[in-house]
Amino acid sequence: MLLERAYAKINLTLDVLGRRPDGYHEVDMVMQSIDLSDLVWLDKRYDGRIVLETSAAHIPTDDRNLCVQAAKVFFRHTGIQSGVHINLEKNIPVAAGLAGGSSDAAAVLRGLNRLFGTERSLGEIAEMAAEIGSDVPFCVYGGTAIAQGRGERLTHIPHQCQMQVLLIHPRMFVSTGEIYQALEPGDFVSHTTSLVMKEALQKQDVDAIPKLVANRLQRVTFSLYPEVAQLADKVETVTRTRVHMSGSGPTLFCLAPTVQQANRMYNALRGIMRDVYMTHFVTNPPVGG
Questions:
Q1: In the chain, which segments carry CATH 3.30.230.10?
Q2: Contact call for residues 53 and 87 (beta carbons, < 8 A)
Q3: pTM reported for the whole predicted model
Q4: Coiled-coil region(s) at which residues (predicted)?
Q5: Which of 90, 141, 157, 240 is most solvent-facing, going by the fewest CB within 10 Å?
Q6: Out of 9, 28, 38, 198, which one is annotated catalytic?
Q7: pLDDT tens digits, residue range 245-286?
């Protein structure tokens, strides 16, 4: 049996440039891995079946699950005639804008590569990942990257900046497709913010980074789901810190330069809400468990 860790991500920037002819949107964003992870256990099966078990209720374990899709893509690309038992221990909130499902799928691809000794490079695995979902190629590598196109074109950002991240997850579902479809022409940009964020990360400018966080989907999510906007106002009042949204939401986050400051915010929020997580940037996620 083999273990792969699947790290969540947040968006430090998310700019939308416009709608593409294929129906997707052209994006330019900075994605950052954080130290909140699912555990993906893989074991060979010799009956050709792909079997998924998970600790999480209410998520599919059939072909609708990205882990199962990832295993099928891997076996198709490698020509391996085998099966796998996947045991998924969920810690990342589901449908939260944190790429939990995408990261799980990426972990399956990396893990199967190790389990079967196929020695595919991360670049080759990322090409497989692009068939599964827009965020999956980033999750194959983790760390920090500018993601462009649908999210599959990656430029990695090496940096040593350590920021603490406080996540606040409202227990509700937000439809990513609905959010993108509700974008208006005024939400599209011609100048992106990713290079400015890249510079701040590499300079380890912990004062500038929270001010540079920007998400073009936030206006739409707050408009369609006013309870998320109300929660953001509440968090900002309690923490006296700028509040941001990851992906299409609904998860909110605050950044802090020190563990002590993050602890103060965490303790204040734990008194008024349930799903609060204290974590931090992961700049070089380890491959494997």
A1: 2-156
A2: yes
A3: 0.94
A4: none
A5: 240
A6: 9
A7: 999 999 999 999 999 999 999 999 987 788 999 999 999 876
